[in-house]
Structure formats: structure tokens, C-alpha cells
From TrEMBL:
GO biological process: amino acid biosynthetic process; aromatic amino acid family biosynthetic process
Annotated family: Belongs to the class-I DAHP synthase family.
Keywords: Amino-acid biosynthesis, Aromatic amino acid biosynthesis, Transferase
All residue ranges annotated as the DAHP synthetase I/KDSA domain in the record: 47-359
EC top class, as a word: transferase
GO cellular component terms listed in the entry, alphabetical order: cytoplasm
Residues that span the membrane, as ranges: none
Protein known as: 3-deoxy-7-phosphoheptulonate synthase
A single GO molecular function term of this UniProt record: 3-deoxy-7-phosphoheptulonate synthase activity
E.C. number(s) listed in UniProt: 2.5.1.54
Catalytic activity as recorded in UniProt: D-erythrose 4-phosphate + phosphoenolpyruvate + H2O = 7-phospho-2-dehydro-3-deoxy-D-arabino-heptonate + phosphate
Keyword check for Cytoplasm: no
Amino acid sequence: MYENITIPDKINNNRIRRFKKIITPQELKRKMPSPRKTDVFVMETRQEIANILRGKDNRLLFIVGPCSIHNLEEAKEYAAKLKVLSDEVSDKILIVMRVYFEKPRTTIGWKGLINDPDLNETYDVNKGIHHARELLLYINRIGLACGSEVLDTITPQYICDLVSWSAIGARTTESQVHRQLVSGLSMPTGFKNGTGGTIKMAAEAIVSAAYTHCFMGITDDGHPAIYETVGNPDCHIILRGGADGPNYEEKYIKETEAIMRENGLTPKIMVDCSHGNSQKNHRNQKGVLQNVMHQIKNSTSTSTSTSTSTSTSTSIIGVMIESNIKEGKQTLKKHNYNYLLPGISITDGCISIEETEKIIKEAYSTILM
């Protein structure tokens, strides 16, 4: 019955235009090694973040930085400014710089520095990976921890030795592969609620990631491999709002706490001041942060009325803030990448570094009150 069927010359990869080999993780790390001092710094900051999640460190965790990285020199300039702020509040707030190189998309659009570093759809991934590692090395070297989103099982081998905290985004929290991947990540990780606002899937993701799994990836020398994990106990939820609106107010915190307890988890919640919680208006991040700090302050007041402890009893362990050198955002078009304004986001709108300093210092003062 198959004799008259014509088989094309190519029955596999027939929708692939071309492929390019890329450098192996081992080769990249050999070219751009991490100094021992940096290794120690990453190890120590991972432990500090884990201690915050476990209630052993009373500080709050703030993930602060651009929506996405598109220019290395601008990112370095921003990092230097954020480092100064970090040092000023470090006794109460641990600031980790948001360093996002990959952008998940609901439909289409620029997918980030690693995927398209030249912003022109040439997809020079080799260049992008080099840029990403260069920036992470710099930020760690100046004494600022890095946080990044993890989108696949291959990229982490190139850069995650320089990452102290990671996130799984709203579009991938429900993905089995990403839950398996997190179970093997060496750093604390936050799972965002779904784009629709569903919190339960994030709680279930944390439960899953705490267990052992197997997933396919590549080794440092570039060979396909099966990774067997031991589970990641240092995970938390990130509330980012959803289709029905923001979810940072106290009633949503209480709801999230209940869902986490129902799943056998100790409630540990981070609030994303941007995205759905800001209703996609970067200027609203200030109000979100003020509300969250008010919740934390009220909880602290309640706990200290019967105790001399200065720790908070709230389940809120920190926030995320989208911030850049300058306020706002600009549109990246196919033929205008050479005319981008410096220091302004090309993805989500961000508050300026000056506004960032102001609202974080206000948050710091709230803790001291």
C-alpha cells in the first residue's frame, strides 16, 4: 500500500532554514573563567537568599533592574549605580540585580540579548552568550548578586554559575520541563503565578521542584545527557498579577498563604511590583511597593507587641522592581536599532534609577520605623 507514495529527499528538519554550531559551555568558561572570589561571592549570596526564605535572615529580598538587558555598557552603568544603593540599605534589604537575557513571548517579538544581541534578527547566539557571561562577571565582580529568568535546559550551563537567584516566568510555571529543571538548579528560585492570575499552579510547581526528577540537557563539553536531580527546597511564589488585575493586596497575600499551606508549603511570597500588579504602568510600581511595605510593617508591629524580636511574621519575603537608567520604554523596530535612546528599556517600561533610589530608601525607612 506504500509503493506509490513519493518520499521527499528530506523528511526531517524540512522546516529548518539552517543551523549554526555554537560554543560549548566548557569552551566559554575556559575563555571567560569565573575567578575564585566570584565563585565564593555567588555561593555566599545564594546562601543569604536561602536564609531569607528559611527565616534565618530578617532582611527583605529585592530583585531590581531592567526588564531586559539589551546594551552591555548601559547595564554596567546601571549596575554601578545600583551597587551604591545596595550598600546603603544592605543591613535591612538584600538587593539582587535583575539581569534578564531571554524574553518569553506571548506571540512574537525580540527574544533577548542571548538570542539576538544585535537587535536586528541576525540571531548571533554565540555573541549573545559571550555578552551575557561578560556582564554577569562584571556585576558579580563589583559585589552585586545577579538574578535571571531560566527559559530552557541548555542556557544555564553557560551562565548559571554566575547567578544567585532565578525565576520561572508566568508562561512557563506550569511547564513540566521547567519544574524538573528547577529541581536541579543550584540557586533559590521563584515561580510566578500564571498569566491568568492562577496561584495554585505556582504552589504545585514548588512542590514538584522539591522532588527528584530527570531531564535532558547538555554537559559542559556539549554532549546530550540525562540529568538526575536531588530537588530544590529553596523556592517561593512570585505574585505578578493576572488577567483579572493586581494581586498584591492583603487579601491576595492571605489567599496565597492558604493555597501554599494546603499544598504542605511554608508560605514564602515575593511581590512583583510590575507587570499585572502595576497594570503595565511602570509609575504604579511605587504604589505597589508602598502597599507591600505597609503590610510588612503592620505584621511587624503585631509580632513585636508580644515580642522583642525585630523579625517580620509576614510571609512576604521581598519584591521585584523594574528599573533602568532612565524612565519609560521605547519601541524596537526592525530598522531603528541604531537610533535607540540610551538608558531606556526596549521591553516593559521601567522607573528611573533616581526614582528607584527614592522608593527603596523609603522602604528602608519603613523597616526602621
